[in-house]
Amino acid sequence: MSKVLIIGAAGQIGSELTQKLREIHGNDNVVASDINRSNTQVVNSGLFETLDAKDFDAVKRCIEKYNIDTVYLMAAMLSATGEKHPMMAWDLNMNSLFHVLNLAKEGLIKKIFWPSSIAVFGPTTPSVETPQHTIMEPTTVYGITKQVGERWCEYFHKQYGVDVRSLRYPGIISWKTMPGGGTTDYAVEIYHKAITHKNYECFLSENTELPMMFMDDAIKATTSIMQAPSEAIKIRSSYNLAAISFTPEHIATSIKKHIPDFEISYNPDFRQNIADSWPKSIDDSSARSDWNWKHDYNLEQLTKEMIFQLEKKYSSSEKVS
Ligand code: SER
Fold it and tell me: What is the pTM of this model?
């Protein structure tokens, strides 16, 4: 039986991954950890440790305490916040990765999941159906850390046999936990504002197309790559991963089918430059052929689910308050 540690379990993806891994492995075999205890759902639903991903000794102690063999390292500073705190982004994103890679090299853990991102690509990358292997000249600190991280993952696999697996996540859309500090966050905020205010001022321009994915698909991709036999994982840097691509205008149109008086306005800020440097769509055929990746949700299905879940959430919180 696998013993799993999630680092960064309170975040947008970490929180839903924790829930799924608790279902797969059983509550006693999954330890969630984060630097803060603010996500009460994650803290109260099973084993939880307060843990700073940058603290090597603390990470090691936690792994030894619970006999952990598999680590999901979900802690990171994302693209928009990273531009405000470049050195902190470098420190967190790189050192946390080195810690788990080195613990795997020492033989303390057997398997690592580490997410990369579409942010590894830059303005010189072919932006439509971006290939798996292509020019990568990221312009954000976040993108630089993810690209460098990919190279280290591949290095630790080749040199030391570390079983590390990685996905280049697109923008992830979900209703349970808010994203924090990313450029694709608009695609989550828009649903909240559509329900609470019937309007949204978007920080990206109307025709900014970016690769996106519903959370359920992201979790499915993550558990699938981790469950695949080691020989199937031919790419040890990180796999391109795709589902859908859309612009703020497309998403607004799909929301209007459910909320006809919803209005969107545009006021691009510094995040526009980041978005402009990223691909519009991604070729993920390697993931599809190597370990049978397949997404389920298109934009219409995702919008329907987001609105259904958020309406439920806001109406139950109104009843409570
Ligand atoms: N969602 C991330 C961001 O916008 C991209 O990986 O920073």
Answer: 0.97
Q: Does residue 40 sit in helix, strand or coil?
A: helix
19: CB partners within 8 A, 6+ apart? 45
Residue nearest ligand 1's atom 6 by CA: 117
DSSP secondary structure string for all residues of 108-127: S-SEEE--EEGGG--TTS--
Which active-site residues does the annotation give? 142
Among 115, 73, 81, CA closest to 218: 115
The full set of domains in the chain, from first to last, is: 4-169+215-240 (3.40.50.720), 172-212+242-320 (3.40.50.720)
If you measure from the C-alpha of residue 274 to the centroid of ligand 1, how many angstroms do you get, rounded to a whole number?
A: 10
Q: State CA 317 to chain mean position distance.
A: 27
| Per-residue pLDDT at 320 | 62
Strand 239-240 relative to strand 199-202, pairing:
unpaired
Span 141-163, pLDDT tens digits: 999 999 999 999 999 999 999 99
Which residues contact residue 154 at a Cβ distance below 8 angstroms, ignoring those fewer than 6 apart? 236, 237
Nearest-angstrom CA–CA distance, 5 and 286: 28
Ligand 1 interacting residues, C-beta cut-off 6 A = 78-79, 117-119, 142, 169, 171, 182-184
